[in-house]
Amino acid sequence: MSKWLRIATPVLIIFVWLTAAGIGGPYFGRIDEVSSNDISTFLPKTAESTEVREELERFQTSNAIPAIVVFESESDLTIDQRQQVLAAKGAMQGTGVAQGAILEPIIADDGKAAFLVVSLDSASEVADGVEELKSAVADSGQTLDYKFTGPAIFSGELNKAFAGIDGTLLLVALSVVFVILLIVYRSPILPIVTLGGAMMALASAILLVWHLAEAGVIQLNGQVQGILFILVIGAATDYSLLYIARYREELKHYESSWEATKAALKGSWEPIVAAGGTVSLGLLCLLASDLGSNKALGPVGAIGVVFAVTIALTFLPAALFLLGRVSFWPRRPHYEPKRTQDDYASEHPVWSRIGSFVVRRHRPIWIVVSILLLAAVYFVPQFKAEGVAQTELVVGPSEARDGQAMLDRHFASGSGSPAEILVDEASWQDVAQATLSSDGVDDVSVYTVSNVAIPYETWRAARNGISARLEQPLPAAAELELEAGYTQLEPKIVDGVALVEATLSVPASSIEAREKVAALRASLEQDYPSVRIGGLSALQLDTNTASDRDLRVVLPLILVVITLVLAFLLRAIVAPIVLLLTTVVSFGTTIGISALLFNHVWQYAGADPAIVIFGFVFLVALGIDYNIFLMTRVREETAKRGVQKGTLKAVVVTGGVITSAGVVLAATFAALDVIPILFLAQIAFIVAFGVLLDTLIVRTLLVPALTLELGRWMWWPSKLANALKRKK
Q1: Domain boundaries 340-378+558-728, corresponding CATH code
Q2: I need a labelling partner for 434 at 20 to 30 A (CA). Which of 134, 145, 402, 469 fits?
Q3: Do residues 44 and 290 make contact, with C-beta atoms less than 8 angstroms apart?
C-alpha cells in the first residue's frame, strides 16, 4: 500500500466514526422518548394479566394511573380533621390534573385515618401532576400527618431514579475507567483515545437502538438502557486493552508503525471477534425469553457489543497508527531488533513469577481452587429470587413506601391496587360472592355504568331495597348513585363481560399477594372458565412465571451456543467443555456469595427472578471472553513451544491485560450502584464480583492449572493434540 493510502485510510476511518458519533450524540438526551418502565408492557401478549389490562381499556373512560393520599391521626379523626381532608380533596380537584371527580374520602374502621384516590392521566407527565397535587395539599392548611403513595407515586420515584442513567451513571463510569486506564498505562493519551472510541461506539449504538425502539422493533426500559451504557463502555475498553497490549508488543519487533499495526491486528482480531461474538450470541439467546425486557436486552446488548468490537478493530488501530509511539508517551516502546520471542519475562516480572508458580504447582492449585469455589456454590439455594414488593424497588428514602406503610396500618393492605376480575355477565354475581368468601380477600366491588366501583355487599343491599333507605349508612359514592336512580347501580357490561374488583388483605405488590392471586385463579377458573384476573399482583405473578420459564429455556440455550463457538474457535472438544465448566462454577460461586451478602449483610428483601438470567448472561459470556483471550494465546504458543512453555508464556504476556480488562469491566458495572434501583444495585455487585473472580482466580490459576494437568488432551481431537503426541 502506498504511503498516501496509509495515511488516507485511517483518516477516513476516524472521520466516519466522528460523523456517526456526531449524529448519534444528541440521542443520549432523547432515549427516554422511546423508553418505558411499566412492567406490564414487557409481559407476553398471552399472559392473563396482559389480556385483562388490554380489555380494561374498554371499561375505563381514560388511561389513568391512581395516586393515593393517606391522612393519619394519633386518635379518632375529629370533625375539623375530616374537614381538612375534604379541603385537601377540593384543593387537588382545583389543580385540573385529576382525571374525573375525586371520590369522597374513605375512613378507616379504626377512625384514625382516611385516604383519597386521585387518578392522573398516564399519558401526560405524571411527575408534574404529582407535584401539583402535593403543592395543593400543602397549601390546604393540613395539621394531619399525610403521605402520597399508590402506583403513580411509585412510578414517579422509579422514573426519577432512572433519570440519572444518561448523566450520573455515564459520568461515574467514564471517570472510574479513566482513572484505571491512567494507572495501567501511566500515559494521558491512551485513556483519552480509548474512552473516546468507547463513547463513539456508544453514541452510534444509541442512534441505531433509538430508531429501532421508535419503530416498535424493540422495547426499552431503564434497566436495559443503563446496562447498554455500561456494556458498551466496558466491552469497548476491554477489547481496546487487548489490541493496545498486542500493538505495544509488536512495536518492539517492528520499526514501522504500519507493520506493527498489521501484526497487532493479525494477532488480536480473532480473539476480539470471538469474544465479542460470544457475548453477542449469548445476549441474542434472550430472544427466546417470554419477557419483553429480556428480549429487549438481547438485540440491544448485541448491537452495543458489535459496535464495541468494531471500534476496537477500526478506530483504535487507525488512531494509534497515526499517533505512532507518541500514543504511549511518556513510556514509549522502542524498537528492539535483537529482541526474540523468548524475551518476555523481563517485561512482566510479576506475571512471570505467577506463571512459574502455576507451572510448578498446577495440581494442588486446581484442586484447592475447585474445592473453594464449589464450597460457595453450596449457598446458591439461599439466593431469594422470587421477586420483591413494589415498595422495595427503590433503594433509599421513599415517600411511596412510607405512604404504603401508613395505608397498611389502618386499611386492608391491598387498598388502592385491587385484583381486577373479568367475568361473563351471567355469572358475575356468583363470582363476586365466591371471591368475597375466598381466603385473603378483604372486600369485593363491582364496576358500575357510572364508572364507580361499589362494594358488592352495598350493591346487593341497594339492589334488594332500592326504594327504602338502608339501616346502615352507605359510602358517599353509593348515596349519590341511589339519588340518581337504580339504573346508575347497574354493573357496566362491555361485550357481555363485567368487571369485579377484589381488595386483598395483604399488600398488592408483596409475594403473599401473588400467592393469593394464584390461589384465586385456581379456585375461580375451575368453576368459571371465563374468569380472567389482572391487576398489579397478577402482573407480578405472571412476570415471575415467565422468568421461571426463561430460566429453564434460555440458560441451557446460552450454554449450547457458547460451547459451539468455543469448539469452532479452539478446534477442540475438551477445551470448550473445561472452559465452560469453570465459568459456570464461577457463576455459581458468585451467586452463592451474593446470597450470603444480600440476605445477611445488606438484608435485601429478595431479588427479581430476571437477575439470575442477566447475571448468567454477563458472567458466562464475559467470563468466556477472558478465557478466549487466554486460550487463543495458549493455543498459539503451545503449537510453537509445547504445553508447559506455551501455557507459561500465554499466562505471562496476557496476565496484565486480562486483569486490567477485568478490573475495568468490574468497575463499569459497579457504577450501576449509583442508580438507586434494587435490581441495578444487585446486578452491579453480581457482575463486578463475578468478573473479578474470573480474572483473578479462574483465569489466572484454575484454567492454566487444568490446561497443564490435561496436557495435550486439552486440545483433543484437534491437529494440535496430534502434533503434541508426536513430539513426545
Answers
A1: 1.20.1640
A2: 469
A3: yes
For residue 472, pLDDT over 90 is answered with no
Would you tell me which CATH number, out of the four given (3.30.70, 3.40.1360, 1.10.287, 3.40.50), belongs to the domain 418-467+476-534? 3.30.70
Where are the domains positioned within the chain?
340-378+558-728, 418-467+476-534
Helix (H, G, I), strand (E, B) or coil at 535: coil
| DSSP-derived 3-state class of residue 443 | strand
Which pLDDT band, with edges at 50, 70 and 90, does 623 fall under? confident
pLDDT of residue 120: 81
Task: Examine domains 340-378+558-728 and 418-467+476-534 and report if their fold is the same.
Answer: no
**pLDDT at 405 > cutoff 50:** yes
Q: CA 457 → CA 180, 296, 362, 557, distances in Å?
A: 67, 45, 76, 52
Which residues are CB-contacts of 243 (< 8 A; sequence separation ≥ 6)? 264, 265, 268, 272, 312, 313, 316, 317
Rounded to the nearest integer, the mean pLDDT of the chain is 85
Q: Which residues touch 16 (CB under 8 Å, ≥6 apart)?
A: none
pLDDT of 481 > 50? The answer is no
Distance CA(174)–CA(176), nearest Å, equals: 6
CA 659/CA 671 separation, integer angstroms: 18
Name residues whose C-beta falls within 8 Å of residue 427's C-beta, 6 or more positions apart in sequence: 528, 530
Rounded to an integer, the average pLDDT of 178-192 is: 89
Q: Kindly report the CA angle at 204 between 201 and 210, in degrees rounded to 5? A: 135
